[in-house]
Amino acid sequence: MRRLIVSGLIYLFGIAIVLLLKPSVMFQEDGRWKEFGIGRDPSYFTYLPFWLFTVVWSVVAYIMVMLIEDSLYIPSDSIEFPRNTMRARKANAVEELTPGYYMLNQGATGRNGVPRYVYLGPEAPGLDE
After folding, report:
1. Is 124 exposed, middle or buried (0-12, 13-18, 19+ CB in 10 A)?
2. Taking the CB of the first residue and of the last residue of the chain, which one, N or C, has fewer CB atoms within 10 A?
């Protein structure tokens, strides 16, 4: 989304500059737009009318933003997948462990084939399963 916003701002900035400067390639002397036409009178026709410039400039602005993001190694936020919030909360939950040793028991697996940790210490940790 950030990429679209930045490229949209660059696009609008470029369009504003062209409308303020009114280059003779796109505009007549009285300020009106020239029509598209090759090989005709250059005072009324042009190879680069304003509408063609806007289409080309939109593509150029988007490609510029993509190249700048890639060259500066800015991570793109355009590809994001929705997360399951309950699963994320469970994964980020930290349980306080009692002093002692917790070892991974490779042979015994709990639910869903997940290896279990075994407590080795002076007292049982008092965790409910």
Report:
1. exposed
2. C
